[in-house]
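User: I've been trying to design a sequence by hand for this structure and keep getting stuck. Would you show me what you'd pick, starting by listing the structure so we're on the same page?

Assistant: Good idea, let's start from the same input. This is the structure you sent:
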């Protein structure tokens, strides 16, 4: 009797990609193919991870490669390739180089795994997810960007720290673009079911919202020579797990919109139900006029970046 093991390919073996490979293998979710253009680097990382299997008590296979042929038959392909943001650099500054890298990587991967679900991590994520979808003509259920899960996790952390409670009891929701115009929704954020609007005053909530909006930049400024990778890898792993285990998780992700929230032909962070087929449904929250206006402002910023790139 043949035993089947799912396969996840990660394109880009930098800090996010290699940490994600570790997360997936040690959670026993799938075998992992770690691909990068640098000769020897993904092979060395894969061997290092394989040598930890006995200690971490799993038997997942991790392959390091520079050849897309080794990614054949992947259920999920995560694109984590691209240059990293440096201090003072906006996400739009990354666009020209990273878009070319991601589109080429997506086309190369889909040629070997035509039925795969694609998760884009590379920034600016909404713009690049849109461009990758346009290049591949993938249906929207099979291509998405990781953004809102990370932003919500950051908001969750800041709420927990402020209130002195466990982050496990905090549920947070952040929509929009993965940047300064993201839309944290305090009235949809709770601590064990209690809205944070009943636990903190408006000024405190606004301070946490602003810190969430600049959460990535805060880490870049502190590190100076790099950007966040532990939390982005964990956020992506959550999405991978929801798909592979068909968990029907309701998560904020960058999805292609087709009229939802009055928006069309754009990728933006919205709550989606995620299962074995990818995006099962896009949930339309009942937003206030102010929240809807803020979401459309975020969308317009993404659209302007797309138009600048295509123009």
């Amino acid at each position: 009797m043949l035993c089947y093991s799912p396969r996840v390919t990660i394109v880009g073996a930098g800090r996010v990609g290699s940490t994600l490979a570790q997360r997936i293998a040690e959670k026993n979710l799938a075998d992992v193919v770690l691909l990068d253009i640098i000769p020897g680097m993904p092979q060395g990382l894969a061997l290092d991870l394989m040598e930890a299997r006995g200690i971490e008590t799993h038997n997942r296979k991790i392959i390091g490669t520079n050849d897309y042929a080794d990614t054949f038959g992947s259920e999920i392909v995560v694109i984590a390739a691209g240059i990293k943001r440096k201090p003072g650099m906006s996400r739009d500054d990354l666009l020209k180089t990273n878009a070319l890298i991601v589109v080429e990587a997506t086309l190369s991967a889909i040629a070997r795994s035509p039925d795969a679900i694609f998760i884009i991590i590379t920034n600016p994520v909404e713009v690049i997810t849109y461009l990758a979808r346009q290049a591949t003509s993938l249906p929207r259920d099979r291509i998405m960007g990781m953004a809102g899960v990370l932003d919500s996790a950051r908001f969750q952390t800041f709420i927990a720290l402020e209130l002195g409670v466990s982050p496990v009891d905090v549920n947070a929701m952040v929509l929009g673009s993965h940047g300064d115009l993201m839309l944290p929704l305090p009235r949809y954020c709770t601590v064990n079911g209690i809205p944070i609007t009943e636990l903190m005053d408006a000024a405190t909530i606004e301070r946490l919202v602003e810190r969430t909006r600049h959460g990535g930049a805060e880490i870049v400024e502190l590190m100076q020579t790099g950007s966040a990778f532990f939390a982005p890898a964990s956020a992506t792993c959550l999405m991978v797990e929801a798909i592979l285990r068909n968990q029907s998780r309701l998560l904020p992700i960058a999805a292609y919109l087709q009229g939802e929230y009055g928006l069309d032909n754009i990728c933006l962070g919205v709550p989606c139900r995620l299962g074995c087929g990818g995006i099962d449904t896009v949930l339309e929250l009942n937003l206030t006029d102010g929240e809807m206006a803020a979401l459309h402002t975020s969308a317009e910023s993404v659209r302007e970046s797309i138009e600048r790139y295509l123009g």
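That's my pick for every position. To get oriented when you compare it with your attempt: The first strand starts at residue 7 and ends at 11. The chain has two domains: 7-145, 148-310.
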